[in-house]
Amino acid sequence: MDGKFDELELAFIDDQLDQHGEFVRDLLMDAIEARNLIKEGVLQEGISWRVGRYGINPHLEIAFPDHGRFQDIAAYKQKKSTNTEQWTRMAEDANRALTGMRAKKKSSRRRKDTRFYASTVYGAMNRLIGRIMYEYTDAEMERMKKVIATGYNMKGN
Known about the structure:
Strand content: 5-15%
Strand order of the largest sheet: 1-2
Distance between the termini: 31 Å
Number of helices: 7
Low-confidence stretches: none
Order of helices and strands: HHEEHHHHH
Radius of gyration: 26 Å
Shape: rod-shaped
Helix content: 55-70%
Number of strands: 2
Mean pLDDT: 79
């Protein structure tokens, strides 16, 4: 092959990207549900995908409401203690040492794991790569030629 794709190959890639978009949407919905990130259902209901082209290069766009994106980003932010909090803590420690009182047991609060996007989407990439590489067989070419000739979409509807 000379590095150029013909329309049949591009149609196959478009079809695989569309199927992968649906697969990733389902995975994202499962990940959101497993992490209990459902507030009003806006995040789950808003996940969508679209197959497009940059020139002749097919691409897959996955979109969801900013609410979900903000939850994903917030998981990486760490609370930094300020100087005031450090001085207050040192003063409390000094008072406890002088009075002989025990330190209050600090309740540990776990933050919710909101990292649902990166591991889900990038974890599914090998599946897409394998399907594009190994499922474009002669039989698939013939099926797609028939589909294109009859004017139906790639899913055979």
